[in-house]
Design a protein that fits this description.
Largest sheet: 2 strands, parallel
Order of helices and strands: HHHHHHHEE
Shape: elongated
Low-confidence stretches: none
Number of domains: 2
Helix content: 55-70%
Strand order of the largest sheet: 1-2
């Protein structure tokens, strides 16, 4: 069956085009260059992709570059705050801020466990609560550094950074932004695991078995969350780079002579 003219994309250069959510049943993409195309959630029943070229484009890689600076910024801030908190005891000044750091990392680390997309309100609350700390932690850290550890300015920096990150996290869409979101949550989870591990060692060293075991369990849990975050980042990057058929309806579609490994047919439930 021949495709109608509006669905005939045969032997065309369609690189980096978006066909997201389009109804393209029985469309003909045979022989076309589809590198970098997005067919997410499109209806492609009976479509023909014979001889088409799938894969990634430099433009897709460039889109991923913007996530690197905020990730590095958070990693640096978490590292600085962690080393500043190590060895602190409840008897010292600033213990309140140490507890806030622990709580912040624990909450932000939970971002590697996304709720189902169907629970929209829970999803929005989760995005906002987790994302808030992605800005609050570096805001507190760098505002404190720039003002000679003035706690008032550090708190103000945390509030400002948290508001900005909250708004950005609530608008998280697409695999690139989700890759950034999960990367930041991974950093927080790993930081919390290291802190809990240090406390576990300290408690075991003085034969305090019960608190030592609880800290050790927390360490293992957040290391698992770190691994989960790494897996999610990998899958998001895979969706962001290459020809994407995420949740597309490909019933009876044909791919004769196509390198299917150059496309991505993954289905992530949180999108």
């Amino acid at each position: 069956m021949r495709s109608p003219p509006e669905l005939n994309f045969q032997n065309r250069d369609l690189r980096d085009r978006s066909f997201r959510n389009r109804i393209l049943d029985h469309a003909d993409f045979s022989g076309s260059d589809l590198r970098g195309c997005d067919f997410s959630e499109a209806s492609l029943q009976g479509a023909c992709f014979n001889g088409a070229t799938l894969g990634w484009t430099p433009r897709q890689l460039f889109r991923l570059l913007w996530v690197i600076p905020p990730i590095l910024l958070l990693a640096d801030a978490v590292t600085r705050l962690m080393f500043g908190a190590l060895g602190r005891t409840p008897a010292e000044n600033g213990w309140f801020f140490v507890l806030v750091l622990y709580s912040s990392l624990a909450i932000a680390g939970l971002g590697t466990v996304p709720p189902p997309k169907s629970r929209l309100r829970l999803r929005r609350f989760w995005q906002g609560l987790v994302g808030l700390w992605f800005g609050a932690l570096p805001g507190f850290c760098y505002a404190g550094i720039w003002t000679n550890n003035d706690s008032r300015w550090a708190i103000a920096g945390a509030v400002l950074g948290g508001i900005v990150a909250l708004l950005l996290s609530l608008t998280t869409r697409g695999p690139v932004r989700w890759a950034a979101f999960f990367s930041m949550s991974l950093i927080a989870a790993y930081g919390f695991a290291l802190l809990m591990g240090a406390w576990a060692i300290a408690f075991f060293a003085v034969a305090e078995l019960l608190p030592g075991l609880s800290m050790a369990l927390s360490t293992v849990l957040y290391l698992l969350l770190t691994l989960q975050g790494g897996w999610l980042v990998y899958r998001c990057v895979r969706l962001a780079v290459g020809t994407c058929f995420h949740k597309a309806n490909l019933k009876d579609a044909t791919f004769t002579g196509v390198k299917l490994e150059a496309g991505n047919f993954d289905s992530l439930q949180f999108f």
